[in-house]
Design a protein that fits this description.
By secondary structure, the protein is mostly beta strands. 5% of the residues lie in helices and 27% in strands.
Length: 91
């Protein structure tokens, strides 16, 4: 990943507590959610993520290597196009 502001390739990971006033009053800050921050080492821009940064849900995977013949299984495939190996149980 690179900075969306300046394109710098180096980012430093930090965490931030997303506290709510009521839980703070009750002394329950520990139960609030955390956010992951990636701070650009070039310009200081802060990228915020709920959870760990990575591919967005529903984004296509890169596919996998077949455990049987080492061929490439595309991300939308359920079985190897070369040898037919699958990780799903056959009925």
């Amino acid at each position: 990943m690179q900075c969306v502001s300046c394109g710098h390739p180096e980012l430093t990971e930090r965490t931030a507590l997303l506290n709510t006033p009521m839980l703070t009053v009750l002394g329950l800050d520990w139960s609030d959610r955390n956010a992951t921050l990636l701070v650009c080492n070039g310009c200081g821009y802060v990228h915020w993520f709920l959870g760990k940064p990575g591919k967005p849900p529903g984004s296509p995977a890169e596919g996998i290597e077949c455990l049987e013949c080492k061929a490439f299984i595309p991300p939308d495939g359920d079985e190897c196009p070369t040898c037919g190996w699958t990780w799903k149980p056959r009925l």
